[in-house]
Q: What sequence folds into this?
């Protein structure tokens, strides 16, 4: 039987990228359906009627939504290149950190930005500890948590280019810095990054929109 | 080896109840550590330094946080009475719905309340469909999704007692109504509900606090 694997995504969604990377790592052939966030397709409404968001993975006619749920599904359905570790405690640790988010630092006013950065740093310190003695969060190979935190690599690259601050500096987070580079440069990962210039343009527009809104109140 | 299993919870946390039910269903002996939300213990800060929230499960000295992560850990560590189904797609469906939340309907102003109720109804309709042909979301037995949605049973019981509206009526959601009753009355579940009167008192106080805040702006 030829399998039908379709991924509904946008060109820039970091959540959708998680699924792209997982499918690439496992070597699964799939078809991409590019969605426009400003005009979502009827199919997206049909396949994710609760949140109407990408990513949606369609596997032999059955839709799965929510990027972390999709990662687990992909890992359970295709066994090659396991994403989650075997040990239950290591799995729990990976799942815990996968939900971790850093508040956007680039869209805040200066004072808010500093508070957001302080909180981010405190949490990043704990992630730094998770990397001790390992190349990737998954060990020698890219795994579930690397993929889940991939947006962080993305955000940091862009933030540092368009903002004045450096969220992750080498002196304070040497292991995270090394991870950012190893992960971003890994062939499977690198090949799937959204076009850099287009991303920068998008983030600058978002920041301007935010500033315009803040100053109009 | 005697296992150390400790659960840090509060008397009313619906997220902690998920873990209580899971441990009870699997017949695991454990010790309860009751936390006071207004004065969290040093141990809670130590075991969940990122969010400082209950529930935390401590298993042989190692802490696990986030209720849904704990449920997966419990299910992978103790195999008796499996919580998640075996089939990857059924697992994905259970995980998707486990994240589902209904916005609190009891704390809103009338107009907001109606919008929240309309959205809740739309989503509850989809949950209703999930129950077709089944006694529990897990099939014949209480499973992961039943436990994850247990707060719903809790919220609905309390909301209906202290508010005028009925979120889940029998005519519109007959299967959900039957599930609410089956689930709430199952011995393992019933034995662990927080004291009803104390819960009602708490929700009335919360509602008054919210009203006081709304009218002081």
A:
């Amino acid at each position: 039987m030829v399998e039908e694997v379709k991924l509904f995504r946008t060109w820039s969604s970091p959540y959708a990228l998680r699924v792209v990377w997982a499918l690439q790592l496992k070597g699964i052939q799939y078809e991409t359906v590019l969605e426009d966030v400003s005009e979502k397709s009827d199919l997206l409404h049909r396949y994710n009627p609760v949140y109407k968001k990408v990513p949606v993975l369609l596997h032999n006619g059955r839709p799965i939504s929510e990027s972390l749920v999709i990662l687990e599904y992909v890992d359970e359905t295709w066994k090659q290149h396991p994403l989650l570790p075997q040990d239950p405690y290591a799995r729990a640790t990976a799942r815990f950190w996968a939900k971790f988010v850093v508040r956007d630092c680039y869209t805040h006013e200066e004072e808010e930005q500093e508070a957001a950065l302080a909180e981010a740093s405190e949490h990043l310190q704990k992630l730094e500890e998770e990397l001790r003695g390992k190349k990737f969060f998954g060990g020698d190979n890219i795994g579930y948590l690397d993929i889940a935190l991939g947006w962080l690599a993305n955000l940091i690259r862009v933030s540092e280019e368009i903002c004045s601050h450096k969220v992750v500096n080498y002196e304070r987070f040497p292991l995270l810095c090394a991870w950012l580079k190893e992960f971003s440069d890994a062939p499977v990962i690198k090949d799937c990054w959204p076009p850099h210039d287009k991303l920068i343009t998008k983030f600058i527009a978002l920041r301007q929109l935010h500033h315009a809104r803040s100053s109009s109140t």
Notes: The first strand of chain B starts at residue 5 and ends at 9. Chain B has two domains: 5-77, 88-215. The domain at 88-215 of chain B is CATH 1.20.1050.10 (Glutathione S-transferase Yfyf (Class Pi); Chain A, domain 2).
